[in-house]
């Protein structure tokens, strides 16, 4: 019996949010008195899997077949299914991602398991497993439990407080039976969106709205983002007007993010915008209108003109960086 964390790969590295899946699996295993293991599929750089030794995992099964690097969700689901059967696992923990959205449902059918997505906290273990989920585009939470013996969880980024617990982590090769017959699309190539930090993975996001007046003013957003090693984002009207690319639009109809820090500049805080960003750990709002609704959701607010405040903030960050 064990609890499995699925370790997602990103360009031969461990996807940063997978550390949370590993920690959550370890915390649940401790409460259940069982062991936590990981499953990693595809090619990883030397030491990449070992970097999870402080998450409390005891073993990572590694399917090192490079042909599985761009595999479809169906094939990866077949691999996870195999390991869960071998390990008699009751719980699988994944991170919420484009992959897990598709893979979770397929696995749930194979394993006769419940698939609980959008989980915002490592679940409480009472008689059942109680999971807090984000629902209605982030406007509410619900607590659910499954009536199945097996459960598949998908955790939103920043759902788990990372705790370090070093174990002597063993990386064990895992071979799967031939899955070439499993139908599904293969990823032949990937082209990353241009720019610095990827929005979905960013710990810090600097976002601009219509208050920036035009695309020619985006330099102040980009400079602050570069100083903080942050990703840039925007409100919907901004991308609708082609000031910024559509993949940067956050909100109900855009990307949903939950970074550690979200800095909103010249954004009013409409409910549709908040739906995509209100799971951020800390929200900072910069707006010249003290009545802007976003201030009600903010942890910190600056009432002021973005064109004065943002360059001063960037200068302050640079000054702090030069001291360390
Ligand atoms: C079905 C539906 C779905 C939607 N989905 C989304 C979505 O996913 N994401 C999204 O963002 N929106 C979405 N919207 C649109 C949403 O309702 C708002 O219209 C939008 O978020 C407003 O964008 P904004 O805050 O950039 O612009 P505005 O509402 O125009 O706000 C601009 C803000 O900038 C401030 N400002 C102006 N000048 C300055 C300055 N010099 N310095 C500082 N502050 C300044 C103003 O005080 C104001 O608060 C959706 C709407 C609908 C109907």
Structural features, described:
The chain has 324 residues and is an alpha/beta fold. It folds into 2 domains: 2-173, HUPs (Rossmann fold, 3-Layer(aba) Sandwich); 199-323, TPP-binding domain (Rossmann fold), CATH 3.40.50.1220. Helix content is 27%, strand content 25%. The protein has helices at 18-32, 73-87, 98-111, 219-228, 236-240, 271-277, 294-297, 306-323, and strands at residues 2-7, 9-10, 13-14, 35-41, 59-63, 91-95, 114-119, 124-125, 129-135, 140-144, 151-155, 170-173, 204-208, 231-234, 261-265, 282-287, 300-303. A 7-stranded parallel beta sheet has the order 7-11-6-1-4-5-12. Strands 14-13-15-16-17 form a 5-stranded parallel beta sheet. Strands 8-9-10 form a 3-stranded antiparallel beta sheet, covered by helices on one side. The longest helix is centred in the C-terminal third of the chain and has 18 residues, at 306-323. It is elongated and about 60 Å long. The mean pLDDT is 92. It binds flavin-adenine dinucleotide (FAD). Flavin-adenine dinucleotide is lined by residues 209-211, 235-238, 249, 251-254, 266-268, 270, 272-273, 276, 286-289, 292, 305-307.
């Amino acid at each position: 019996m064990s609890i499995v964390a699925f370790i997602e790969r990103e360009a031969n590295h461990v996807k940063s949010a997978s550390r949370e899946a590993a920690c959550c699996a370890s915390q649940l295993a401790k409460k259940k008195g069982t062991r936590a293991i990981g499953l990693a599929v595809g090619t990883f750089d030397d030491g990449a899997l070992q970097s999870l030794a402080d998450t409390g995992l005891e073993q990572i099964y590694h399917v090192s077949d490079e042909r599985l690097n761009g595999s479809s969700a169906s094939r990866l689901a077949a691999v996870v299914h195999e390991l869960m059967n071998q390990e008699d696992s009751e719980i699988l923990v994944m991170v919420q991602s484009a992959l897990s959205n598709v893979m979770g449902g397929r696995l749930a059918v194979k394993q006769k398991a419940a698939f609980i997505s959008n989980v915002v906290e490592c679940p409480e273990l009472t008689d059942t497993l109680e999971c807090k989920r984000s629902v209605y585009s982030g406007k509410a939470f619900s607590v659910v439990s499954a009536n199945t013996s097996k459960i598949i969880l998908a955790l939103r980024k920043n759902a788990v407080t990372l705790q370090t617990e070093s174990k002597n982590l063993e990386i064990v090769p895992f071979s799967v039976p031939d899955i070439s017959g499993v139908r599904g699309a293969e990823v032949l190539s990937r082209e990353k969106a241009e720019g610095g930090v990827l929005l979905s993975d960013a710990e810090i996001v600097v976002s601009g709205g219509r208050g920036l007046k035009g695309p020619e003013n985006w330099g102040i957003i980009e400079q602050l983002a570069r100083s903080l090693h942050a990703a840039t984002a925007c409100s919907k009207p901004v991308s609708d007007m082609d000031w910024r690319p559509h993949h940067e639009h956050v909100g109900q109809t855009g990307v949903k993010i939950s970074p550690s820090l979200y800095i909103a500049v010249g954004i009013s805080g409409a409910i549709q915008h908040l739906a995509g960003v209100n799971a951020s750990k800390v929200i900072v709002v910069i707006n010249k209108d003290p009545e802007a609704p976003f201030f009600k959701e903010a942890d910190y607010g600056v009432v002021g003109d973005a064109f004065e405040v943002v360059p001063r903030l960037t200068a302050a960050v640079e000054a702090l960086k030069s001291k360390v």
